[in-house]
């Protein structure tokens, strides 16, 4: 017992919080990349997360392609759809007010959700974890499902790898420079429009990757993105809009905070992230890792 709470219940909820935090981190990472590089508030991110889950489900149901190949194919497919969207629509909105990008992506999210609700309804579709990750491990104080352990480890590797790519490589330097002074970067022979297109595609691909990883944990449903996107936006705001490291750290921390709240004060678990967001914005409007204007 810890503070009157059974240790199994405490660690169980911490695991749930860590799993939720893994998806918060991956999704907020993609949002932060898109906003930081393109200055677009991508409200379609939740729908693209849903597309990743449905891509895995449809690859299995209609083509017999299992989890491991789908783990590569699903984010690629979602990333390609993002590239098409950026080239045909978003690229025309960069010089307009940010509100136009928000409204377009919000409408796109509604369209995508509506299409999948029409064909699949609102009930979830089951997607089993791969046999390699079936079962779990008895740690003595709790039972750890193997797939959930994989989700936590894989998300950490993905998030840290993406951060290193953007912060420590030449490509990342070009991306950061293109957001600050695109004309100067273009003058050095760098194809800035292509960089922006790839950035949006990568951000969408990260959402799709989170979706296929979430499919065995949650049911595949047209509503899974809309149920999550508001929380993820709160995570991004707390971490600092456009901050890659802030998105990663805040995603995991707020997921754990949510899990602990379910143990000690379950009634507040659905609002604790928004309470933290309000407090952070009062004390530091730019977010914990954001740059003050």
Task: Walk me through this protein's architecture.
By secondary structure, this protein is mostly helical. The chain has a single domain (7-283), classed as ABC transporter involved in vitamin B12 uptake, BtuC (Orthogonal Bundle). Helix content is 70%, strand content 2%. The protein is built from 11 helices and 2 strands; from the N terminus they run H-H-H-H-E-E-H-H-H-H-H-H-H. The protein has a two-stranded antiparallel ribbon with strand order 1-2. Strand 1 (136-138) and strand 2 (143-145) form a beta hairpin. Helix 2 (45-63) packs across helix 3 (67-88). It is globular and about 60 Å long.
Topology overview:
Elements (H helix, E strand, L loop, with lengths): L6 H32 L6 H19 L3 H22 L9 H23 L15 E3 L4 E3 H23 L1 H11 L1 H6 L4 H23 L11 H14 L4 H21 L7 H12 L10
Q: Under CATH, the topology is which?
A: ABC transporter involved in vitamin B12 uptake, BtuC
Biggest β-sheet strands, sense, barrel = 2 strands, antiparallel
Q: Could you name the ranges where pLDDT drops below 50 across 5 or more consecutive residues?
A: none
The second-level CATH architecture is Orthogonal Bundle
Helical proportion, percent range: over 70%
Percentage of β-strand residues: under 5%
Question: Which structural class do you get from the secondary structure elements?
Answer: mainly alpha
Instruction: Kindly provide the name of the CATH class.
Output: Mainly Alpha
Indicate the overall shape: globular
Which whole number gives the mean pLDDT? Answer: 89
How many individual domains? Answer: 1
Rg on CA atoms, Å: 19 Å
**Can you count the helices?**
11
- Quantity of strands, as a count: 2
String of helices and strands: HHHHEEHHHHHHH
Query: Reading side by side through the largest sheet, how are the strands ordered?
Result: 1-2
User: What's the N-to-C terminus distance?
Assistant: 47 Å
């Amino acid at each position: 017992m810890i503070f009157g709470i059974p240790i199994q219940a405490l660690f169980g909820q911490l695991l749930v919080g860590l799993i939720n935090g893994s998806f918060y981190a991956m999704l907020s990472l993609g949002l932060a990349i898109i906003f930081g590089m393109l200055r677009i508030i991508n409200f379609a991110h939740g729908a693209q997360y849903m597309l990743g889950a449905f891509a895995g489900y449809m690859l299995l149901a209609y083509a017999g392609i299992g989890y491991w190949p789908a783990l590569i194919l699903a984010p690629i497919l979602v990333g390609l759809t993002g590239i098409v969207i950026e080239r045909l629509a978003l690229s025309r909105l960069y010089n307009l007010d940010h509100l136009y990008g928000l409204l377009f992506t919000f409408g796109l999210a509604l369209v995508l959700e509506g299409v999948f609700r029409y064909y699949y309804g609102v009930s979830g579709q089951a997607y089993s974890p791969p046999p390699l990750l079936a079962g779990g491990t008895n740690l003595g104080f709790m039972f750890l499902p193997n797939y959930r352990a994989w989700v936590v480890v894989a998300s950490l590797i993905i998030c840290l790898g993406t951060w290193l790519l953007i912060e420590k490589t030449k490509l990342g330097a070009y991306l950061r420079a293109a957001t600050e002074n695109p004309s100067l970067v273009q003058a050095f022979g760098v194809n800035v429009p292509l960089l922006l297109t790839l950035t949006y595609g990568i951000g969408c691909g990260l959402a799709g990757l989170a979706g296929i990883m979430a499919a065995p944990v949650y049911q595949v449903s047209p509503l899974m993105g809309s149920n999550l996107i508001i929380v993820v936006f709160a995570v991004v705001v707390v971490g600092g809009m456009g901050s890659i490291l802030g998105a990663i750290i805040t995603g995991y921390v707020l997921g754990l905070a949510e899990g602990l709240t379910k143990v000690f004060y379950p009634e507040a678990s659905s609002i604790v992230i928004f309470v933290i967001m309000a407090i952070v914005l009062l004390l530091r409007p730019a977010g914990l890792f954001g740059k003050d204007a």
